Amino acid sequence: MADRVGKPAAAGSAAPLDQLPAGELARKLAESQQMIARFSRENERLANQNEQLTGSKQIVANDYKGEGFCWERFCMRTSPALADQCRRTPG
């Protein structure tokens, strides 16, 4: 085949990259780049989520120091909407 680079692969084995048709190699490269971009975005999202959770963990740890845990204070620091809900919840 004229569009192949290198020699054909042995029957039943995976073709090394230098033996793939040029179009297939380009497709695999584009697919790999898309996967890297998607995984990079997901990694960034998870890093941001981890940072938020670490901050919340630190708030809870600080609330347990000294006078003890204050649920309303935790709610106020975490989310104003959650703080409203905490104030409405008895006890």
Indicate the mean pLDDT: 75
**Secondary-structure element order, N to C:** HHH
Biggest beta sheet summary: none
- The rounded Rg comes to 27 Å
Number of helices: 3
> Beta fraction of the residues?
under 5%
Specify the structural class: mainly alpha
Explain what the structure shows.
- The chain is rod-shaped, with a radius of gyration of 27 Å.
- 66% of the residues lie in helices and 0% in strands.
- It is an all-alpha fold and 91 residues long.
- It starts with 21 loop residues before the first helix and ends with a helix.
- The longest helix is centred in the middle third of the chain and has 43 residues, at 22-64.
- The mean pLDDT is 75.
- The chain contains 3 helices and no strands.
- The chain has one domain.
- The protein has helices spanning 22-64, 71-78, 80-88.
Relevant terms:
91 residues, mainly alpha, rod-shaped, 3 helices, single chain
Strand and helix map with partners:
Blueprint: H1 22-64, H2 71-78, H3 80-88
Helix pairs in contact: 1-2, 2-3
Short structural summary:
This protein is mostly helical and 91 residues long.
